[in-house]
Amino acid sequence: MQLLSVPFLRRYGKPVVFALLLVPAAILVHNWWLAFEGLPNDLGFNPQEASNRFTGDWTLRMLLLALAITPLSKLLNSPKPILFRRMVGLYAFFYACLHIASYLWLDKYFAWGEVWADILKRIYITVGMAAFVLLIPLAVTSTRGWVRRLGSKNWQRLHKAVYAIGVLAVIHFIMMRKGFQVEPLIYAAILAALLISRVPEWVRKARRRNRKAAAA
Amino acid sequence: MLIKNRHAWQESENAVTPEGVYVNRRNFLRAGLAGGAAIAGLGSGLSSAFAAEDRVLAPLTYRLTNIDPGEEQTPFNAVTQYNNFYEYGTDKDDPAKNAWRLQPKPWSVTVDGMVDKPGTYGLEDVIDFKGLQERIYRLRCVEAWSMVIPWIGVPLGPVLQKFGIQSGAKYVRFETLADKKQMPGIKWPVLDWPYEEGLRLDEAMNELAFLAVGLYGNELPNQNGAPIRLVVPWKYGFKSIKSIVRISLTDKEPSTSWSKANAREYGFYSNVNPDVDHPRWSQKRERRIGEFARRETLMFNGYGDLVADLYKGMDLKANY
């Protein structure tokens, strides 16, 4: 279909998706602007908590969306979704940065002692921070130059860290909620489905490797 | 919120509205809102609650007291739209959205265990509505936020004495209503329902322990634990159990919902204590709702003069 050709998607699809994924951040920034102007806003009675949760939710959604792209492309038997994978992945990093900024600035107001104690003592924060730290090298090496420098094999190996990041992020969410709550488990189920969808491919690759090893 | 001052000659709206209509009025409203909500979908994570309160909250007659921290009171809207009441959902705005289902009238409370006069009593027999008083208390949530709320009610101790506390009773156990029809949240096993809480008897007899039936001059809104709730201002908010249906005197320490859910995080005492960290939240500072920066948390939430003696000689790190 001409309308969804690769050049068309590159030219028009990407800017549209880019703008769309920016909408939640725009809503948040707009609301904080309203709050600082003393105008009515949707941040509620604990704006810091609302921001932490909102940015955390969207980080997780972007992560899951990024993880959904490869299975989607297999499902459609088309490489077109891959065109958007890097952008979505970088958006996950972008929302993670907003999440950290919300926590450090709005919530803790740069009380570094308290932040450090949180990271050491509060396991859900330790886990969340670990996920964020792991995300940094993936964001840095997202450019074509870095793929070349690392070699595609190494690059791919490095970017498998996203599976661990997904798992850590979901654990962070589950631990953050009090009591037995369903919402984080929905995210966990989606993540599990996305990981399981990759298993047949992993098995096939492992077999091929074994065969090669046996032949050599 | 719409406050209606009804003249004696006016019929109340619920008297002239078919029950099926007013019981389902939210569905009716939601049907109309659903279209708009779909459009606003992306922003829904931040969207504010629907109107908080339908019940007409009758004004109460009460006397003033000097129990007042002298700090700015948290606005009524925040007190009634930012709540933890998991029987109505786990988001802070869920109780305001869902608690219209609670039917606080008529209400009865079962009093049992080690009392001389056990039985099931109407609310009016538990609370002396002619002797109500207002007390302005700080409320400190374990999640490190706080409010200042003008409650109306009566001290807990004399209420318990009315039922005849038998010698040997050492603890008081409280239980919240757990009715699937009135409380949509209890279809999820967030906690082991019904919600239960407890105090040591000397804590319950302390002059600060309070049974509230109102706030800001009127009856308690549903989402704040109508029609009768506990307020123990020197303990974390979850100890101040809402919508009480049972009060029992016992000689054994009662189990409490949060400590059953996670004993490492929530103990029986749960006194506000900036020096004992919760595994999830530093308790050194708190966010007063309405303020941007955090403020220091006070030992026993600032009520040490009146309650510190209860814990003399106790290791508060072990008895958290």
Structure report:
- The complex is a heterodimer of chains A (216) and B (320).
- Chain A is mainly α and 216 residues long.
- Chain A has one domain (2-215).
- Chain A is 81% helix and 0% strand.
- The longest helix of chain A has 31 residues, at 6-36.
- Chain A is globular, with a radius of gyration of 20 Å.
- The termini of chain A are far apart.
- With 320 residues, chain B is an alpha+beta fold.
- Chain B folds into two domains: 1-47, no CATH class; 52-311, Sulfite Oxidase, Chain A, domain 2.
- Chain B has ten helices and 13 strands.
- In chain B, the strands form two sheets. In chain B, strands 1, 4, 5, 8, 9, 10, 12 and 13 form an eight-stranded mixed beta sheet that branches. In chain B, strands 3-2-11-6-7 form a five-stranded mixed beta sheet.
- The A-B interface holds A 23-24, 27-28, 31, 42-46, 48-50, 53-54, 57, 109, 111, 114, 117-118, 121-124, 176-183 and B 42-43, 45-48, 77-78, 81-82, 86, 90, 92-93, 145, 188-191, 261, 277, 279-282, 284-285, 287, 289-290, 293-294.
List keywords for this structure.
A: 216 residues, mainly alpha, 10 helices, 81% helix, B: 320 residues, alpha+beta, Sulfite Oxidase, Chain A, domain 2, 2 domains, eight-stranded mixed β-sheet, 13 strands
List the helices and strands and how they pair.
The complex is a heterodimer of chains A (216) and B (320).
Chain A: H1 6-36, H2 47-76, H3 85-107, H4 112-121, H5 123-140, H6 144-150, H7 152-159, H8 161-176, H9 183-196, H10 199-215
Chain B: H1 13-16, H2 19-23, H3 25-39, E1 63-64, H4 76-81, H5 94-98, E2 108-113, E3 119-122, H6 123-126, E4 133-140, E5 145-155, H7 156-162, E6 171-176, E7 196-200, H8 201-205, E8 210-215, E9 218-219, E10 229-231, E11 244-250, H9 257-261, E12 285-288, E13 295-296, H10 304-307
